[in-house]
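I hope you will forgive my troubling you with a question about protein structure. You will find the record immediately after this paragraph.
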Amino acid sequence: MTNAQDRIWIERLPLAAGRPVLGFGVTTLLILAAFALRWVADPYLPGGFPFVTFFPAVILASALFGARCGAYAGLVCGLLAWYFFVDPKMSFAIRSDTLLAMAFYLLVVVTDVFIIHWMQRANAKLARERELSRVLADTRELLFRELQHRVSNNLQVAAGLISLQKRRIDDADARAALDEASRRLALIGRISRQLYDAGGAARRMREFLEPLCHDVIEASGRTGIRCHVMVEEDATLSPDAAIPLALIVAESMANAIEHGFADREHGVIEVELSRDGAQSLRIEVRDDGHGLPEGFDIDGSGSLGLSIARTLAAQLSGTFELVAGRGTTARLLLPA
C-alpha cells in the first residue's frame, strides 16, 4: 500500500464506531482465540507467562474497535488468565504473588489502552485538520482563479474603452498610440490567467511561452502566421518576471507581424530558449520577414514598443537588442 492509502486506512480506526454489537462481538472472538492459543501452548511454556497471548488480544481490540472494547478485552482476559493460568490454577485465590502479577497485568493493559486511545484521538484530530486545510486550499485556489478572471476581464474592458476613445481623436499619431496601448492591455488581459500559479510556484518557461505565442498570434487576427517554440534546456520562471517577459516576447512578435509581414499573408516566427554560457539565458524571437531597414538604429528608432522592451529587460537585469539577418531577430539575454 502507498503512504496515502495507509493513512486513509489508519484514519478509519476505530472500526464499527456506530455498531457496538459488532465491535464487542469481534472482541469476544479475539478473546476466545487468545484463550485457546494460551491453552494449547500452556504445556510448552515455562511458568510466569500467564498473560502472554492475552496482551495482543487487548491491543488489537483497542486498536480496531476503540477503548471500550479494549477495556472489555482487558477485563475478560485478566479474569481468564487469573483463573486458568495463575497459580493456584482453577481458582481466584488471592495471594501476594497473585496480586503482584495481576497488578502488573492491570498496569500494562491500562497503559496500552490509554496510549492507543490517545493516538486515535490525535489521529482523528489530524485528519480533521488535514481536511480543513484541503478545503481552505481549494477555497484559496478558487478565489485566486476568480481574481485572475476578474483582473483579466477588467483589462479587456479597459482595452475596449481605449479603442472606443480612439474614435473621437483625429490626430493619426494619437490614434496609433491609443491603438498600441489598447493592444498591450488586451494582450495582458488575455495572458494574465496563465501568468501565476495559485501556490506562488515558479513555472517552466516552455509551458509559459507556448500559450503566450498562441495568444499573440490569435490577437493579431493573422491566420497565416505560424509560431514554433524551441526549448533547448528548460528553465524556471519566477512569478515576478512573468509580466515583463511576456510583454517583451509579445512586443517582439507584434513587431514581426506588423513590420516583417506587412504585405504578406504567411510567415513563420520562431521563439527559442537556450543557454548562453552558464550564467545567462537567451530568448530569441526570429521571423522570416523583410528584415530591418537599411541603417536601422534601435536607439534612434523612436519606437515606443522597443523602448518598453528595453526598459523591461533592464528591470530583469538583462539586455534587449535587434539583430539583422534572414528576417529579424529580437534577442533577450537574462541572468540564469
